[in-house]
Design a protein that fits this description.
272 residues, two-stranded antiparallel sheet, 9 helices, transmembrane helix, transmembrane, 2% strand, single chain, membrane
Length: 272
C-alpha cells in the first residue's frame, strides 16, 4: 500500500490556490461579509404595553381563552351506537368466547372433574402411605403390558387393606367396651353411684338396656337360636349368673378379687 501511495502523483499547492480563487469570485456580492462596516445597527425600540382601563387579574383576562378542538374521528353509525364496547369487557354475543364463558354446563363439568380428581388423588396417596401391604402392589410397568391383571391385583390388595383396617377398628372398640366394663365393676366394688364422678353415668349397660323392650321375649333368651339346645343352655346359665349378681330386694352384688360375691356397701345419705 505504501508503494501505491508513492506511485500516485499528488496535486501541488499552487493548484489548490487557483481553485480557491475561482470559487471565491463565483460567490454573490451580497453574501460577502467584510470585517468592518461604517454603519452601526440601530438599537431596538422598547416594547410599551397598553395601559388597561381597570385591574384584571390573570385568572380573569379580558378575552376568553379558546379551548383546543380535538378530532375524534368520524361519527359513529347507528349499529355502533347500540353496542357499547369498553376495555376489559365480555366478548360480544355470538362469538365462541362468549359462549364458553356463559355456558353453565361447561363450568359445572370442569368444577366437578377437578373435585373428583382431587378426591381420587388424595384417596390413592392415603392408601399408599398407610397400607401395610405396599410390597404386594404390582409394579407400574405392569400397567402397560397387562392392564387387567394390574387392576385386579390392585383391587385384591385394597380389599386386604380394608379388612386390616376393619379388624383394627373392631379391636379398638372391643378395648373401649372392656374398659367401660372394668370401670363399672370398679365403681360397684367401691360403692360409687352411677351418676357420681367426672364421668358419671358412663358405665356398662345391662342386657335389658342393650336389648331393649322391643326385642324382649317371654321365656326365650334374646339373640340365641332355639334350634341349638347347647347354645340355649349356655345362654340361660349366663343369664342366671347375671341375675345372681343382684341380691335380695335389688341389692347390688359384686365379685371381689378373691372371687367371692359381696354386697355393695350402702352409703349414708347417698354421699359416702
Amino acid at each position: 500500500m505504501a508503494s501505491l501511495r508513492l506511485a500516485v502523483p499528488r496535486a501541488g499547492l499552487s493548484l489548490h490556490a487557483k481553485q480557491l480563487q475561482q470559487t471565491r469570485w463565483f460567490l454573490p456580492v451580497l453574501a460577502r461579509r467584510h470585517a468592518s462596516t461604517s454603519e452601526k445597527p440601530t438599537p431596538p425600540k422598547p416594547r410599551v404595553l397598553e395601559k388597561p382601563d381597570k385591574f384584571r387579574p390573570p385568572s380573569h383576562p379580558s378575552r376568553l381563552r379558546s379551548k383546543p378542538r380535538y378530532n375524534y374521528g368520524p361519527d359513529l353509525t347507528q349499529e355502533q351506537k347500540t353496542v357499547r364496547r369498553y376495555p376489559h369487557m365480555m366478548p360480544p354475543e355470538g362469538t365462541t368466547m362468549h359462549w364458553f364463558l356463559t355456558n353453565r354446563t361447561i363450568h359445572a363439568w370442569i368444577s366437578l372433574s377437578i373435585l373428583v380428581s382431587l378426591v381420587i388423588s388424595i384417596w390413592i396417596s392415603d392408601f399408599l402411605h398407610t397400607t401395610p401391604y405396599s410390597d404386594l402392589l404390582p409394579p407400574k410397568s405392569m400397567f402397560l403390558s397387562h392392564p387387567f391383571s394390574y387392576i385386579g391385583r390392585y383391587i385384591e390388595v385394597y380389599q386386604m387393606h380394608v379388612e386390616y383396617v376393619s379388624a383394627q377398628t373392631a379391636e379398638r372398640r372391643k378395648n373401649k367396651v372392656d374398659d367401660v366394663q372394668k370401670r363399672s365393676d370398679y365403681r360397684k366394688a367401691h360403692g360409687i353411684a352411677q351418676g357420681e364422678g367426672i364421668f358419671g353415668g358412663w358405665s356398662a349397660k345391662s342386657d335389658e338396656e342393650k336389648v331393649g323392650p322391643a326385642l324382649a321375649t317371654d321365656g326365650a333368651v334374646p339373640g340365641v337360636d332355639d334350634a341349638s339346645p347347647r347354645a340355649v343352655a349356655a345362654a340361660r346359665e349366663a343369664q342366671a349368673e347375671a341375675e345372681s349378681s343382684t341380691g335380695k330386694e335389688g341389692e347390688e352384688v359384686f365379685v371381689d378379687f378373691e372371687g367371692k360375691k359381696q354386697a355393695a356397701p350402702k352409703k349414708w345419705l347417698g354421699i359416702w
